[in-house]
């Protein structure tokens, strides 16, 4: 991935400029298209996971080895910051929707949990990711016998999904990329059935990032700079009409990046105020909530 040449370009590439949603989406679509075409992880032609592999990243955030075995090649691109399928406690026969499904990693795991009577749908706004996921679906069917996955092209702010049609919504490290996060949460509430639930893993801020981070091209840590405060996320979930919300901070996610010698983590560490770490400012956040019954 070609790094932005200026602080202004960095802010645009990370989705931090909330007033230019069209440009933000265009940039995110282009960069994730590169990832899909390269077959690599989150830095397209080179790994941003340092000494780790995509599977080791997934295991570090809570995936079990047996969940990773047998997945289509390239479905796991090391883009996880949590395990929303585990949080969701998926049941056979349920319909589950994954926002920002990429190569289909969480969709394929969810499909095995909901079984042949269930349905796992992935939505992604990047055509190359959808193409990759649909190719992966063929090998998934061959290896598991399951034909219960769908991949739809669309924006998570405007989901191509009918009202009240989904039992569970999941998302893994994607909502922070959106330039209109309140709209994403409204869409989640719209597509959920009454009593349906949402389980999201995302990046959120514990406190505002230092100006040095926002103005530096090295602050490209999976778009941490595009994240919002935990309290802002809580307000958005409530405003969408979701209830029984639980928020769990998992700052050890950044410990794993440090242990993997993640180059982007190390670059940010160098420009943080002395004596501070990335996890002093940002966290992986698990979010669970429900849509009220009628």
Describe it:
38% of the residues lie in helices and 18% in strands. It is an alpha/beta fold and 294 residues long. The protein has a single domain (7-290), classed as Rossmann fold (3-Layer(aba) Sandwich). A seven-stranded mixed β-sheet has the order 3-2-1-4-5-7-6, sandwiched between helices. α8 links the parallel β4 (166-172) and β5. The longest helix is centred in the first third of the chain and has 18 residues, at 21-38. It is globular. 52% of the residues are buried.
Task: Describe what is shown at a glance.
By secondary structure, the protein is an alpha/beta fold. It is built from 12 helices and 7 strands.
Which CATH top level class fits?
Alpha Beta
For the termini, the CA-CA separation is 47 Å
Task: Provide the residue-averaged pLDDT.
Answer: 81
* CATH domain topology: Rossmann fold
- Number of alpha- plus pi-helical segments: 12
**Low-confidence sequence ranges:** 1-20, 40-51, 216-223
Strand count, sense and barrel status of the largest sheet are: 7 strands, mixed
The value of Rg in angstroms is: 18 Å
In the CATH hierarchy, what is the superfamily?
Vaccinia Virus protein VP39
- SSE string, helices as H and strands as E: HHHHHEHEHEEHEHHEHHE
**If strands are numbered along the chain, what order do they take across the biggest sheet?**
3-2-1-4-5-7-6
Q: Which percent range fits the helix content? A: 25-40%
Looking at the structure, what is the overall shape?
A: globular
Which architecture would the CATH scheme give at its second level?
3-Layer(aba) Sandwich
Task: Look at the helices and sheets and give the structural class.
Answer: alpha/beta
What number of domains?
1
Number of strands: 7
Tell me the fraction of residues in β-strands, as a range: 15-25%
